[in-house]
Design brief:
The complex is a heterodimer of chains A (about 800) and B (about 325). By secondary structure, chain A is of the alpha+beta class. Chain A folds into six domains: about 1-40 and about 155-180, Phenylalanyl-tRNA Synthetase, Chain B, domain 1; about 45-155, Nucleic acid-binding proteins (OB fold (Dihydrolipoamide Acetyltransferase, E2P)); about 195-395, 3-Layer(bba) Sandwich (Phenylalanyl-tRNA Synthetase, Chain B, domain 3); about 410-475, Phenylalanyl-tRNA Synthetase, Chain B, domain 1 (2-Layer Sandwich), CATH 3.30.56; about 490-690, 2-Layer Sandwich (BirA Bifunctional Protein, domain 2), CATH 3.30.930; about 710-795, Alpha-Beta Plaits. In chain A, the strands form ten sheets. Chain A has a seven-stranded mixed β-sheet with strand order 27-30-31-35-34-33-32, with helices on both faces. In chain A, strands 11, 13, 14, 21, 22 and 23 form a six-stranded mixed β-sheet that branches. In chain A, helix 6 packs across helix 7 (about 250-260). The longest helix of chain A is centred in the last third of the chain and has 19 residues, at about 775-790. Chain A is elongated, with a radius of gyration of 41 Å. Chain A starts with a strand and ends with a strand. Chain B has about 325 residues and is α+β, with helices and mostly antiparallel strands. Chain B has two domains: about 1-90; about 105-335, Bira Bifunctional Protein, Domain 2 (BirA Bifunctional Protein, domain 2, 2-Layer Sandwich), CATH 3.30.930.10. Helices cover about 40% and strands about 20% of the residues of chain B. In chain B, a hairpin with a 2-residue loop joins strand 6 (about 240-245) and strand 7. In chain B, helix 3 runs antiparallel to helix 4 and helix 5 (about 105-120) packs across helix 10 (about 310-315). The longest helix of chain B is centred in the N-terminal third of the chain and has 33 residues, at about 55-85. The model of chain B has no long low-confidence stretch (mean pLDDT about 90). Classes of the chains: A alpha+beta (about 800), B alpha+beta (about 325). Chains A and B meet through helix 8, helix 11, helix 13, helix 14 and strand 27 of A and helix 1, helix 5, strand 1, strand 4 and strand 5 of B.
Chain lengths: ~800, ~325
Amino acid sequence: MKISYNWLRELVGVDWPVDELAERLTLCGTACEEIESMAGHLDKVVVGRVVKLSPVTGADKIQLATVEVGTERMDLICGAPNVAEGQTVAVALIGAKLAGGMEIRKVKIRGVISCGMICSERELGLSDDHSGIMVLETEARPGTPLATALDLEDYRLTFELTPNRPDSMCAIGIARDIAALANTAVRYPQTALREVTARASDEVSVAIEDPDACPRYAARVIRGVMGGQSPWWMQRRLIISGIRPISSIVDITNYVMLETGHPLHAFDLERFGSREVVVRRARPGETFTTLDEKEHELTPDVLLITNGKAGVAAGGVMGGLNSEVSGSTTDILLEAAYFNPSVIRKSKRHLGLATESSSRFERGADPNGGLERAIDRAAALMAELCSGQVLQGVVDCYPKKIMPVTIPLRPERCNRILGTKISDERMQQILTGLEFTVSNGRGPLQVTVPTFRPDIEREIDLIEEVVRIEGFAAVPDAVYNLGPLYTPRHPSDLFQQEVRQVLIGAGFDEILTHGLADIRDALVFYPDQTPVRLANYSSGDLNIMRTSLLPTTAGVVAHNVAHRNLDLCLFELGNVYYPVDHEDDPTGGQRLRLALVVTGQSEHTWRDRPRPLDFYDISGALEHVCERLRLGRLSFVDSPREFFQPEVSFEIRAGGDPIGVTGQLSDKVLRHFGIKQPVYAAELDADKVMSLRRPLAEYSPLPVYPSAPRDLAIVVDAGIRAGDLIEAIKLAAGDLAEHVEVFDLYTGEQIKQGCKSIAVSIRYRSPERSLASGEVDERQAHVVTMLKQKFNAEIRDK
Amino acid sequence: MSIIDDVVRVRDEAVERISKADSLDSLQELRVRYLGRKGEITGFLKGLKELTNDERKQVGAVANRARSEIESLLQQIQEKLSASKQASVFDPTLPGSRSRLGVAHITNQALQEICDIFYGMGFETAYGPDIETDYYNFEALNFPPDHPARDMQDTLFVEGGRLLRTHTTPVQARELEKRRPPFKIITPGKVFRNEAISARAHVAFHQVDGFAVDEHATLADLKGVLVAFCRAYFGPEVKLKFRPSFFPFTEPSAEVDVSCFLCGGSGCQLCKYAGWLEILGCGMIDPNVLAKAGFDTERYTGYAFGLGVERIALMKHRIDDIRLFYNNDIRFLRQFG
């Protein structure tokens, strides 16, 4: 909401400079987000009078205007469609810097020298109107600075108000906060009015069919109004608030709304269609045309103001085209009503209309003092500015009285919650300053809350008022109450931190995706899955919650490869989601997963040639993770999956427990993501991995006796797997084989076609004695025999 | 015999190391180590005189053979290294031998740094589901039934009625049901909004919410905790400004600005010449929220706060496009290594 600074100062007698006023309001919760100087773009802009217009040869869209600015006359080019001789206008002289950044210079257009510019409202920073030049209604002499002539030595304050404070959506509301801060009172504008003897109640009647939706409907009748424009002081305040002046009647209702916060509506009584106002729910299928000329089909969600037969206004949202005031309107039916906020919210939603009126009613207007002040103030202004005759009395239908509530406030409770030592007297002063009524006897303060503050319902709400006005700065920032000094770290945090450290140390970059996915990407991986679907995302290709990290990870690879980041080692720790049968499912339908992906080449350094990254780079990283988390032995079991190449597709096991899948992404997947290089990936159930994690081992004594190493070069069929050999060797070598590992792999000239040579080192050791070489040789011979029998192996001489 | 085994072991070790020697200096060291006056092989040979005749013969044969083998290998490797000496002049300015380190995602780095400060103050972590129920995301947190945030406009729903949590405060509602005071908890995690993705907005971001409940938790405690956090995170000189605000689940509520960490408050592009940056929302837990979880609100009070992780990371690292966080372009990610 935007409000004039001078207006606020007029309502409260404070002389705070604009910055101070804005800051102090912000610190009490009435946040002033922006201060704009209305005169900021008006330096070197003066009042001018258009003396003569002459055509410019060769240009039919522009004219040469001779303009009187003070004692001198000047020529300038004007292209506005509405410029006319005799007009009083705003002229920007050379050196003026207009809103939007334009600086006025002497220019030559079509051979004509132009020494200034006649300005539109937009160029003056007054409004967004740029349809033509601004024509002034001012008595000021040509040459007068525009800011002086239009009384624009003012600021536009833009407030960002919270939805719980409908009372602050007007000048008086903000003035109340200022008054409370300054320990003074609001100077309310005069609403006294002279009524004629004819009674309004003889003219119109009001009936409310649904008092819950419309607890109060008040009407006045004003006769014989003269149309025309509202005075500049009113227009100026409307313009500062971003509301376009239209005509005196409409401007008065808008002005009073800005002043009091209470939306009003003026009907043309002649066009009203009857003399009775009936407030009722719209009937299903009933149609109604709002004054923006849009026809709506209604439902009972819309509260309709009718003339007994047809609708004349969508209550609290927008008036109807059929009863709109116009230049020829003479008699006014002025409405001031109070509507139930939730009714207005529904109605507004159904109509798809958010108006100044609906935004106030849906948050909660004041059914009592605010409403009464508004209707009288508007009537008084119509009498004063439009020569209207105000008929006697208000036709006031108020079937559901809304009474102020009284709430006890315990000052000690207030101080206990805030951690402050504010005195009872100060609390009372603050609340009284906000126009609450406070009575104190024994015990708590009894605080009666005016109905313009529907947000105040409980003691805690009063405590907030106290701290809001006293200022948060008055609350000490001392921790009196420490609570627990130590709390254990969450196991999942520690786990994730450890995994992250290992993989980062292993050269993997961490990625983070948001968890929403495109089902087309997901189906490439899991064609049969039923993911959790999004019901209402309409802005892009996101339609499910991911069931696997692999599609999103593949997407990240595709993005990077497309940007020529070809060499990637990435990982992600993130949730995947699945449907649950019941809302209270303790898992929440999510699981933590770990994904790894490698593609491209290893690093090229002066020592190391690059090589293609492959499966072993994934399995190596997984070994790191398993080692650091002390999982059981890692193994890979053939397990073909559609999204992996059939020969490179495995289930990952740790100590026999399945923990995930790994492999080389299939051609189909690569095609789908537009990736043209091999990609190896793994996805692990991180929750499962976490559960398999083992504590640090118990100490084992250091070996006392020497070990006996033996190496074997085993030539076997190329299809035989090293892991199987190692397992068999361990079994055959028995307990004394402390360690068995592969240390070389060779295929080539010296090995016959279709075979490979695997070099294995076996370390024998006994914890109890030195092993005799004969004993070790015997074991080794046993191993060799086994290898020959079981694997048809040949042993190469070293 | 064990001495023979020892000789063989030393010989094998020497052969391996000498074969791998990559400089004349290290080769010289190895020569001294095995064949020098106090070398290991020399040691065996010197020790022969203490053995019986029979042993001396056997061990002597093995040790002498080992010495000549090592000798010839040293010779061979020395020739090889000398030949390539020209090419491998020692140069300490060459990059060190190492493998690349990965980088933690910037969001997680910021998240970790924030959480670590709260861990230091005795807060513990709690997690909850990303797909939430209307009850925990809104109702338990005192959102009225027709609050605008419950609109389809702002909240992402999944089929079946659940929704993607719009803040991590539902974890607060869940924990309140389970815990007995006193407790101090932070709830880091992902949150979602129904937004079109642009440089300034995204469907998901991260939040750290925190809350504490005790018999005497006060607004002063909340201020104390937040001042301590901001000093730890932004530096000891930071100033805080509490502006009263409104959240359905706290009362009183405030937004917190910190003095701009770039200009110190004098005004710059980052703080849009305001000198302040908005970083936190906070307040005393609304009694309605405590009551819904079964607390006696006369006895227990609590405070709560929340901050956006990407928002702070954006400001701290001057990142101008929020989409960068989720594009995962390694040229971006590796800037924060």
